[in-house]
């Protein structure tokens, strides 16, 4: 099977593996952490916060889009 993602290694966060698909026209990104690691917990907490606070999530999405 051909590899269709590009590995970015830790990409600035120790212990993480980060892969993307699509490069400039990215369609997917995958963060892989050791279960229960401090970084995994932090990322999941941020995700959960955005899910519960729709206005903040919208602002975050707009800011992220403007930075592209």
Automatic annotation (TrEMBL):
It comes from the Bacteria. Pfam families: GrpB. InterPro entries: GrpB/CoaE, NT_sf. Gene3D superfamilies: Beta Polymerase, domain 2. Signal peptide: none annotated. Residues 1-21 are annotated as: Disordered. PANTHER family: GRPB DOMAIN PROTEIN (AFU_ORTHOLOGUE AFUA_1G01530), GRPB FAMILY PROTEIN. This is GrpB family protein. It comes from Serratia surfactantfaciens.
